[in-house]
Amino acid sequence: MEVVPLGSDSEIAAVAAGIIEAVVRHRPAAVLGLATGSTPLPTYRELLSRHKAAVGPSYAAVTCFNLDEYVGLAAGHEQSYLATIARELTDALGISRDRVNGPDPSSDGLETAGERYEALIAAVGGIDVQLLGIGSDGHLAFNEPGSSLASRTRVKTLTAQTRKDNARFFSSLDEVPTHVLTQGLGTILEARHLVLIATGESKANATAAAVEGPVSASCPASVVQLHPHVTVLLDPAAASRLDRLAYYREVYTAKPAWQGF
Questions:
Q1: Range 2-253 classified under CATH 3.40.50.1360
Q2: Pairing of strands 100-101, 63-66
Q3: H-type helices in the chain, by residue range?
Q4: pLDDT tens digits for range 14-44
Q5: Are 232 and 223 a contacting pair, CB within 8 Å?
Q6: Which residues are marked as active site?
Q7: What is the pLDDT of residues 177-196, one digit of tens each?
Q8: CB-CB contact of 128 with 32 (8 Å)
């Protein structure tokens, strides 16, 4: 695991965008794992800025998989994660909508939706780089505390706190769905490179538990410690509770330019 303390959201966005661009340049038909919510937005804006300036790679052959999807929203709802990722990133990058995938929340196939999504990911050879955020309680995707570290894509019930956290995207808390389809922790660990972004004081305790605490279902994000290729990008507030912060800074400062991520 490489923990990278940075100075601002813009620095994080530049590093994360660079990682994604490097993967796409190396493999034009790359498979990207995308997250929604507020954490990845600066990275998406950076990618779009570079694309608009014609300094980024072509994304025409890229395939994308979302981490999760709400259950119970009307088809085409503006807060569905497929609609959100299209609006915030993939449409403007020139990725056709038939290359952007999310778990299928249709009520008539909900029981098999997880298995079908796993099969779709496997069919393209797996995810090359997976972008991740972290919840204030340590949840990863929508794997809440107590989730199995070997879990697969499935339906999960959202906690009251997570629904409150997501209410800002809806007109009221009552409109926030109570269930989601989410990639499991075991599914996430199969991506070849995990890029975890944490920003803000509200994420400091969860970040410290995920990076330096024991691997435990009580902090689902701690499962990233089991992955061979993880990059954790932190702003000063999110990094403030790390015991080994000075060490991470020293290592990153001395990182050879050729090494990359």
A1: yes
A2: parallel
A3: 9-26, 41-52, 81-85, 91-93, 113-123, 160-166, 185-188, 204-212, 245-253
A4: 999 999 999 999 999 999 999 998 999 999 9
A5: no
A6: 68, 137, 139, 144
A7: 999 999 999 999 999 999 99
A8: yes
Q: Provide the CB-side half-sphere exposure for 140 (13 A, CA).
A: 37
Residue type, 141: A
Q: What are phi and psi of 99, to 5 degrees?
A: -100, 0
Residue 203 · residue 170 · CB < 8 Å: no
Identify the sign of the CA torsion 98, 103, 105, 110: positive
Question: For 111-133, what is each residue's pLDDT tens digit?
Answer: 999 999 999 999 999 999 999 99
Segments making up each domain of the chain, as ranges: 2-253
Q: pLDDT tens digits, residue range 48-77?
A: 999 999 999 999 999 999 999 999 998 889
Distances (CA, A) of 244 to 75, 84, 194, 248, 249: 46, 36, 21, 6, 9
